[in-house]
Amino acid sequence: MAYTQPHHPRLSVLSTTSQSSVDHLSPTASSTRFSLPSVPASNKPGAPRPSIYDRNLNKTRVSEVSASAFSFLFSEVVQYTQKRVSGINDLERRLNTLGYRIGTRVLELMVWRAESSSKAPKREIRFLPALMSIHTQVWKAVFGKPADAIEKSVENADEYMIIDNDPPIERHISVPRDMSQLSCSSFTAGIVEAVMDGLGFPARVTAHNTPTAQFPSRTTILIKLEQSVLDREELLK
Amino acid sequence: MDGLAQLTSNEYLVLAGTLHGIHAITSRLSPMGASSGAQVIEGETFKITILLTATGTKFVLLTSLTDTSADGILQKVYEIYADAVMKNPFHTPEMPIRTEAFDTRITALIGSGLGV
């Protein structure tokens, strides 16, 4: 049935469904549950509004999202998670898992963008360049700024650290004293873990509060590499 | 602020309760229909400035009569509240604010606001 709705282009994707269901969803019908904002006049009637999937992936590279909106969303994420765990370790593990899901997508997006923007896209096969690209590229893609430092553990050869002096996701979070061990940057640790895994450097990544007088919310992302990665690095030397 | 007696938490509760009642009454006094309620209450030696937000939360500031910055300070307090309290996952709504960042930023604001 070629039924088109002249006034509500956003609903026009429903035009092939039966008229009764369109009526049901239409705000012009008696139902008052839906209050769609009126559509600007510039939109062509009948044309569906482009969704996030229609946008060019390269054009969204420099676009920004509201930090406030993200803060509220992340706050809800932490509250939701906190209600369903038994302790701080469990909470951090779950935040890590949530971040992991972001990280796999960030890596894929970055690789796709690198391929389309350069003639000879490069894949990092050595650990240190890969770590550098996480420190700058991943941080820029996710937080809009590079991380502040990379450090190598003196005691353990398999441990590396990425340091952020003021993690944007924790900017409005005050952890109560009785949970002072908790670092909400476990979410970021999950992102890093996913990117490391995706690049072929399996590692265990955790987040730790390392405040200084100047940077009270300074956070260290600790990367503990698997032995296989170290062995391979040894061979590539 | 130095040299002023601190209220006990019980006195704060009494003050808040009384003020809430006064505010509820004053919001119905206007002959012209609904009103926002009391915004400033003045005494011989003090002034109470009340900021009523769109969500019903009230911010109250007690100052001397000569102070003119109360409105601006309350707006900034609201801003800090929105940032440090409402975006903090460890704050429970309707409960006393136990958020470190809020205390730090309020101290910084009041300190700078009065030039102490």
From TrEMBL, chain A:
Pfam families: TRAPP (PF04051). It comes from the Eukaryota. Residues 11-22 have a biased composition (Low complexity). The keyword Transport applies. This is Trafficking protein particle complex subunit. Residues 1-54 are annotated as: Disordered. Gene3D superfamilies: Trafficking protein particle complex subunit 3 (3.30.1380.20).
From TrEMBL, chain B:
SUPFAM superfamilies: SNARE-like (SSF64356). InterPro entries: Longin-like_dom_sf, TRAPPC. Coiled coil: none annotated. One of its GO terms (biological process) is endoplasmic reticulum to Golgi vesicle-mediated transport. One of its GO terms (cellular component) is Golgi apparatus. It is found in: Endoplasmic reticulum; Golgi apparatus, cis-Golgi network; Golgi apparatus. Keywords: Endoplasmic reticulum, ER-Golgi transport, Golgi apparatus, Transport. The keyword Transport applies. The keyword Transport applies. Gene3D superfamilies: 3.30.450.70. Pfam families: Sybindin. CDD domains: TRAPPC4_synbindin (cd14856). Part of the multisubunit transport protein particle (TRAPP) complex. Belongs to the TRAPP small subunits family. TRAPPC4 subfamily. This is Trafficking protein particle complex subunit. It comes from Asterophora parasitica.
